[in-house]
Amino acid sequence: MEAVSVRVPLHSPYPQHPDTLEEACAENFRAMAATLCFALSRLPADGRPAVICMTAAQTHEYGRIFGRGTIWARHFPLLLVEPRKAIEALWAAEQALRSGAVAGVAIAVDDLTLTQTRRLEFAARHGGASAMTVLTRPGGLTAARRRWRIRPAPSAPNPFDARAPGSLRIAAELVRSRTEPPALFMLEQDDETHRLRLADRLAGHGLVEAGRTVAAA
Amino acid sequence: MRLRALNDAARRLGLHREQADADARAIAPALLAAPAEPARELKALRALAAWCGCWSPTVALDLSPGGFEGLFLDIAGVDHLFGGEDAMLSVMRRRLKAAGIPCRIALAPTPGAAWAMARWSGKETSRLDSARLRDGIASLPLAALRLDEANLRLARLFGLRRIGDLYALPRSGLARRFRDGDGLGLVRRLDQALGLAEEPLTPVRPAADYRAVKLFAEPVLDMAGIEARLPALAAKLAAQLERDGRGAARLRLTGFRSIGTTATLEVRIGTPHRQTKIWLRLLREKGLDRLDPGFGFDALALSADRTAPVAAVQPALEPDSARPAGALSVAELADRLAARLGEAAVTMPVPVPSWVPERSERRVPAQDVIAAAGLRPVPSSRPRPLLMLDPPEPVEVMAELPDSPPARFRWRRVLRHVARAEGPERLEPEWWQIQRRPVPEREEFVESGMDEFPLKNQGFQGAASENQGRIKGSDRTRDYYLVEDENGARYWLFREGLYDRREEKELVPSWWMHGLFP
To answer: How close, in Å, is residue B340 to chain A by CA atoms?
Structure first.
């Protein structure tokens, strides 16, 4: 399904701080890695570790998290919970959120009921953490404060080699939110810090290529 | 065929062990016999040894031949829990009888003397204290010393019948005549019985240093009763640990059923501690329902199988504002998750010094790494995917020879066109790992089985779909490519084997999908 392009005000602010529960839906199979990356980057970085929950079935379908591919993550340590059943993954996510020991949990499930999302939200509020649910199909009713739809976008031009991919880009569409209007954000991975930031914003005086940061003179 | 075990009725008829089956049937035609199952008997003996663990932490199997097998229990230091040795013997006899296990119990200062008294004294319960040890066993026959057949026969020739006959004889003479292949001659057995030589016992389960046992006057039938008694048990164990400044790293809860079997529950704790509330919580997460009481538990034991020193930490004066009140630490969270989901499900990736991607990291149970104060990942100069497929999946690729990136490829039955690509990143096999010889097979290019693949005949090399089984443990050079398709999805592919450097008898290079980038 195509993402709907919405006409938005020019500088619609990208919500930096995650709410207690947000939902990120991968548009298709190919977008799963991008959605996980997006979810992990949205978890708050306050020194506490983060947890990624995926069921064993999903690790067979999409692959296992590769530790060396998560060096850009701001959370350490990264706990990987891979139970057999989805219900155990939800239990583990709830325990982790409620405990107050982690900054956030990214849980990848096939679908969630409204009650389950409510429980996750209560647990996240109790523990002062954030939860990102990563879905493969658009979910039904949910208690999530924001709903995103993620797909990968063609990467930025590579300054050194025209044939090679440049910094990775993700198109994150805020489909529904209680506080902001729907919007489409292009996120790009920064070369040095490897973190996701907005790509459409012109940096500084506008004379540089969109999306690149330059040390202020 | 010989008789191996008999009941009282058979014995009263005059039958005995090791009697030929034919003779026995001649005496008692209505004899009912079943084939002996030594393996099951051993298993039952082990289960009984586990059950006797409620009286003593050190229970050893005694596998004497000739129907004399039994158990050794070392009750040094535990009899005060039962109110003295006599009380303990009567409790044991009563409980064993209630469990339907006929037995003869003897209490003596040495294992040898106890063995002798239990089997040869003719009494159901017997006691010997150290003062009367020599006289106590003097009247027992020589077979009570666990001698082998040859020595027994020789002793009979010499006219020695009772253990008391040996006391007066010179030791050197006895040692010279009654020798044994194992060295456990008569003199050694005598010394063991009298306490002059050591006889170490090998317990069925190594005794835990810290153990709290609670025996119940009446069997406890339901989980609520067990849950109500657990806090007191945990407090007792924690007090023992606190005396030595240690924390429990592995807890075992054992329930001893009144019918003579046991049920156990084990929990592992990553960072050892003594907080009983958390212990109980972990046991509950593991599932107290797994302890099936059956007809009721007679006793419960909580032991710390593994402990480690733990320093007492003074609580801070001001609460840490970043964390909400009552917050757990990460270690406790890992313990709780691992108790319910299993240690293999809660892991952390730990880097391993290897450049082969599937070997470059391993998953370690989260409890271990947190206790070892974690390892920060080192940023690598090369991009690595977020998700890695294990094992790599076969891909059909169109690529220019010898080592250009793919132009298009088919993965999971979807054709994808490559817009941009980077590579190759060449990873040679680690020569210090065990090398497998290349499989000697036909060298010519193997046609792909899928005819609808459109560009097969235009000078590009298609991958052979027959190579699919070879990926594991491969020792060929790999060329990794980071490719991006027209939609922006990024993949990590590799080609295993080189076109311009193929050795003789090597398979055609094959393509595989190893990971997905965000």
So the answer is: 9
